[in-house]
């Protein structure tokens, strides 16, 4: 089964000594993910290999591959798999790996809907998914992709969906928090890799909140059933469900009901300063036009970039410019409302080259999960060819009290060796800088000066271009970073 997104299968197949285990793939001993160069590989034991071949030969699975809803996957020739493994798959490489706590509300909802759509297609064909985790989904721009091919397994009659609890904890409950009580879910998911427990949700949804859509069934009833069955084995629970008449048709009806619920959930956050930043930021038309020309020239002056980071992306104005000159752009913004609006706009346009993410750059995503390595930190996932840091430095250095040397070290560390930094310095006399400084003690930032900033840039690379905007209070730099 050849998939267009994969490398030519005629290319050399990696050997066992080339394989590097994926730190986030160790919980299922039947199939594990490895990396070899640019290849993403999945090793299967005898049972998992049999499940894969049945899956590949089914009627429902190939259309999911063809439409890109499941990541591109093909089986490598016999004898490829290392000792103890029965088969080896090669997967499409995702342009940039992100985590659910970096997504906006609409992103999480669309990821949940794709998961349910896939399960709804699998059940009538006699398959289910063993997992329901949000981490089984990734993005190609604004298109969600299901990546855990090893999660598919034959369905046993009378067996409930094994992934239901994970789906609730990492997808449904975060959506309910945002939609029903306006609480941002990102900190909750970042704090717990397994998501939000039913008992935690239950304490938040008491009184009349119990009657909100989805709460009584999927929070309170789920929590009650979970407590009642805590001491029983899976086999006993399965037998009880079978005796009670639980069937494939009932499972399918449950999935359809869940889909209807998730589709109805929505969250319209209150307006914030950042939502309308392009109008309120104070740039003159001359400044804006000059800045766009500088950024465009910087992006166009080098060979086509594989990955560009737009840090402090706001409404995506410069991410869109970058997408004309790069294979992929990750647009990072702190405000979930701004990211949500950008995502909805880009998705409506069918944009596959820009991935918007929610992240506070003064507190970026750390490593998480088992030994802090199961989910890689933001810094470990970057290595961009170009980093855009426009109208950002003053917010970190003055607004968040991060010393200027630390700011520059952070920005340059996000680039690949030999990469490029396009950065804007807002002078202390700029109105925005004065506004930030007005809330700080006098003299707290003696080194926030243009000469000190330029010296730091020179220590990290070569300043290739420098341009002061017409207003005279902001300067743009194009820096070739040291290898």
UniProtKB/TrEMBL annotation:
Keyword terms: Methyltransferase, Transferase
CDD domains: AdoMet_MTases
GO biological process: methylation
Annotated SUPFAM superfamilies: S-adenosyl-L-methionine-dependent methyltransferases (SSF53335)
Keyword Transferase: yes
Cited InterPro entries: SAM-dependent_MTases_sf (IPR029063)
Coiled coil (UniProt feature): none
Source species: Micromonospora zingiberis
Listed name of the protein: Class I SAM-dependent methyltransferase
Region (Disordered): 1-27
GO MF terms held by the record: methyltransferase activity
The keyword Transferase appears for this protein: yes
